[in-house]
Amino acid sequence: MWVMSRLEVWEERTEWWLVAAALVFLGAYATPIIWPQIPADVTRTCHVVVLITWVIFWIDYAVRLGLAEDRSRFVRRNVIDLVALAVPMFRPLRLLVLLNLITVLNRVGLHTMRGRVATYTGFGSLVMILVAGLAITDAERGAPGSMIGSFGDGLWWAAVTVTTVGYGDIFPVTAAGRVIAAVLMVGGIALLGVVTATLASWLVERVSTENERVETATRAQVEALADEVRALRAELATRSEPPPG
Amino acid sequence: MWVMSRLEVWEERTEWWLVAAALVFLGAYATPIIWPQIPADVTRTCHVVVLITWVIFWIDYAVRLGLAEDRSRFVRRNVIDLVALAVPMFRPLRLLVLLNLITVLNRVGLHTMRGRVATYTGFGSLVMILVAGLAITDAERGAPGSMIGSFGDGLWWAAVTVTTVGYGDIFPVTAAGRVIAAVLMVGGIALLGVVTATLASWLVERVSTENERVETATRAQVEALADEVRALRAELATRSEPPPG
Amino acid sequence: MWVMSRLEVWEERTEWWLVAAALVFLGAYATPIIWPQIPADVTRTCHVVVLITWVIFWIDYAVRLGLAEDRSRFVRRNVIDLVALAVPMFRPLRLLVLLNLITVLNRVGLHTMRGRVATYTGFGSLVMILVAGLAITDAERGAPGSMIGSFGDGLWWAAVTVTTVGYGDIFPVTAAGRVIAAVLMVGGIALLGVVTATLASWLVERVSTENERVETATRAQVEALADEVRALRAELATRSEPPPG
Amino acid sequence: MWVMSRLEVWEERTEWWLVAAALVFLGAYATPIIWPQIPADVTRTCHVVVLITWVIFWIDYAVRLGLAEDRSRFVRRNVIDLVALAVPMFRPLRLLVLLNLITVLNRVGLHTMRGRVATYTGFGSLVMILVAGLAITDAERGAPGSMIGSFGDGLWWAAVTVTTVGYGDIFPVTAAGRVIAAVLMVGGIALLGVVTATLASWLVERVSTENERVETATRAQVEALADEVRALRAELATRSEPPPG
């Protein structure tokens, strides 16, 4: 029987609380970016909420590190978590926790490999565009020479970038913006790759099903035949002995 | 025997009428966009024709919904139809009905999976570029700062966008134009994916045919052999019994 | 025995003459584009040579059409040839004859499917960039607002376009230039697709070779076994009969 | 037994010295590019170090050519080395020696085909972006109309180019810069292809594992069965002979 480690028990129990924290973080992070003319005290509240979720994620990370059996392996495997927690610029990466929402979709009944890949890709792309749009608007608005004046511009830029179209009507001019863009471009290449690979895998399978009219012999089938022959031999042995009697 | 549902009978019977309605819609939609200097009453007639085809598509949707056995499933499966009917900006999506024209091509003799995929991709890309070119010209011409002055510009922009080249000589500046662009970019990624996947599937098959000189044993073959052995055993049983006599 | 049709005999015999004609055409077509300050009479000579090769290609097409058994099928299968001959703007397409040079490479020893695909792709891309660079320089130089002043600019533009990078420092402004660009973009998508598909097919094969330690039973093997059993049964029949004697 | 040729012995022994020389070259090549305000004598020292590593690579090439059994084949197989040594503009290609560092990663335990491909791609892309960023900054800074003022700009341009996004905020204006860009674009297409192919190969395998619940009969299995039948026949022969006695 497969017993869950204490780390896995913790991760399963806290999963939904972290998704909730990420959604709260998303709201508090997005509000002052989408509506910059918001009253100053709302903005301040939002910053406090962002800080609180940040502390929650740190506590979760610390507990998980404490529960892990092989700690150096845990740190290596969760480098992204650490980066997202430690570097203020990568705060939006914390939203990747939202990918856990996909488990709900899985329960709805996507049991095939390709179905899961397609769901992750679609949902992940939307989260990626949304988060990149927020982050770039946050990083660029107000910078000298910036072309991004609103969240709409940020979203549009994210869509143009992730699809590798790159018109050049909007491009980041700050160092933080360029780092966000580089991450998004890598995401775009991965997106293209996943879409193509899923289609190719589907097509390879369909075509091979079409071609294969020949069913290959199974191992079980040959084993049954071998049993038959062995029985025949045993029978022959018993039948052949009486004659001398 | 497979009996068609009433919904399928309706869809088969109305198929060509809808394609005809879509072609009429295309003409009436495209005319004032391609020739903006057309007399005002021609433009008005076009708008009326567009409205009539819109009503026809609504009626068709209502009848299909009425005939469907599982209505909530029907709505879920035909979300694109509903969006194309309800949101004025997505009117051009109604032209997707033109994809039914491919069934003609299928009758000409494309029976393989890959042949069908290639035909859909080629025809679908052309329809997509044409429709996107019309829609962006409609949305952008006359907008302040717009770079699209004619249908030719719109077509050129659509080709540059769908191939993800994205020079940036022309890009949408209105919200409606950006939405059209986002849809087209997703289409471009899908196009790239389908082209690559079709080629990969073809090449995987060709290479595996080249490598395979070994024919694998079939299930039928092993079954025939098992019959042979069983017959042998039966024969042995009948032959071995006489001796005691 | 497979007998060549008269059309195939003609095509094999003229193959090298056509490649030679295409090379002469390339030289005569490229010279006034690459060196626009060339003396007027050299330019005139080049135009005459281009005209002569054009007539040669027309004669070849006519002879092939005359020799074809199914003429309407021949026309359908050679649409590109006809377009390249009839439309002045598509003259450079005649250079596709140069792809026959690949047969030389094939003789050097590329016998695998993938080797041939890779060779065609590499050589075809180079020809495509070269030809597109010449054609765009021809079409755009001197046009109002044009950004292409030399063959070097044209080559650079072709490389930026075929890889779908599309900086937008140079883009066509004439209708002819846009048509050339559209053809090149389609070529770029095909190029990306072929590169990816070749790599994917290679990797799928390598990985499946790595995984497969199990050799599947062959048809011949099971047939030999069936022969053995049949012989056993025959022997049993002859041995079992004597006892009563 | 497989005996190493003298060339292979040399290559294995010098491998790490060449990697060290490449790292020294990287430092000496990069320093004046990244910090252009460096004192003149440091710059001069760097140039001398670059020259020394260049001589070392020439000596290595000469020794390997001397040890090779088939010299014309050696030259053909190592064209890139020769180009990197002979053409000053391609000096950075010498950094490709750094790819040998991957053998360290291999020792850490990447034994699967796909693991190796992924490692080469990731590491190779980083080296490619770094080297292209250095080379373009070297080639473009100070050129009239150049948009690249610092190594940061160069890196940003390399990332935008290799992912085929191509905003067009920065593009090369010198001939050397355009050649570097063309090489990087080809690298970008290859990168896209490798990422997609690796994903596709992984997915094809996972899906085929999912589908295959049937284990095919193995050759060994059928052979064992044939032995059984042959034994049966032999036994029958010995048993059937006594009766006449």
Provide a concise account of the structure shown.
Chain A has 245 residues and is mainly α.
Present the secondary structure layout.
Four copies of one chain form a homotetramer.
Chain A: H1 6-34, H2 40-67, H3 71-77, H4 79-86, H5 102-109, H6 113-140, H7 151-162, H8 175-211, H9 219-240
Helix pairs in contact in A: 1-2, 6-7, 6-8
- In the CATH scheme, what's the topology name of the largest domain in chain A? Helix Hairpins
What CATH architecture label of the largest domain in chain A applies?
Orthogonal Bundle
Largest interface: A-B, 44 and 49 residues
Strand content of chain A: under 5%
Number of helices of chain A: 9
Oligomer: homotetramer
Number of strands of chain A: 0
| Secondary structure: helix percent of chain A | over 70%
List keywords for this structure.
homotetramer, 245 residues, mainly alpha, Volt_channel_dom_sf (chains A, B, C, D), K_chnl_dom (chains A, B, C, D), ion channel (chains A, B, C, D), VG_K_chnl (chains A, B, C, D), Voltage-gated potassium channel (chains A, B, C, D)
